[in-house]
Every structure is written in structure tokens, then in C-alpha cells.
Amino acid sequence: MAIKKQYLKSKPICKVTFTVPAEEAKKVAVVGDFNEWNPKGSLLKKLKNGTFKGTFDLPKENSFEFRYIVDGNYVNDEAADRYQWNDFAGTENAVIEL
Predict the structure, then answer these.
(1) Domains of the chain: residue spans and CATH
(2) How is residue 87 annotated by DSSP?
(3) Which of 28, 35, 41, 79 has the fewest CB atoms within 10 Å distance of its CB?
(4) What is the Cα–Cα distance from 52 to 8, expressed in whole angstroms?
(5) What is the pLDDT of residues 42-95, one digit of tens each?
(6) Is 29 exposed, middle or buried (0-12, 13-18, 19+ CB in 10 A)?
(7) Model-level pTM?
């Protein structure tokens, strides 16, 4: 898994690209604070090499809890900036710092 951050000078946003290697998976989505944990509109596109990839514009100077949903299973990203316990989920979520 990988996270790439591209900060824009002209706008207060960061283009964040999420990459998930999941050759056997049918669907992968990224959900988090930035999209109210809703997988609609956050599906990653499957590439020919079997990885899933998607880029999202997120506001700079924020941190967001997030996880991937891989065929219905929640998965953390080992490339996250840190992890944070979430009482609602009863587990740790990955966190991205922008």
C-alpha cells in the first residue's frame, strides 16, 4: 500500500493518491473522516497490474482517520502517518496528516 501527497500552491488542498495492491479483490474503496465513511464515490480503480488506485482532493493542514474496504473487509494502510484508536469502531484507524 502507498500514499502519495501532492500539495498545490494555488489552492489549499492536497491531492492524495491511495494505492492498494489487491489482485484478487473485486472492489476497493477508501473511507474516512473526509467522506463521512461513505464508500460511494470513493471506489478505487483497478489497474491492469492488479493494484487499485484513486486520487482525492483533501484540505491541507488537517488530519483524517481512514481505512480501506477490500471486498467488504476493513483494512488499515501500513503506509499511514500514524494510527489512532476509535471507540466507535472498536479498533485502530489509519491517519493521514496533510
Answers:
(1) 2-97 (2.60.40.10)
(2) T
(3) 41
(4) 24
(5) 999 999 999 999 999 999 999 999 999 999 999 999 999 999 999 988 999 999
(6) buried
(7) 0.93
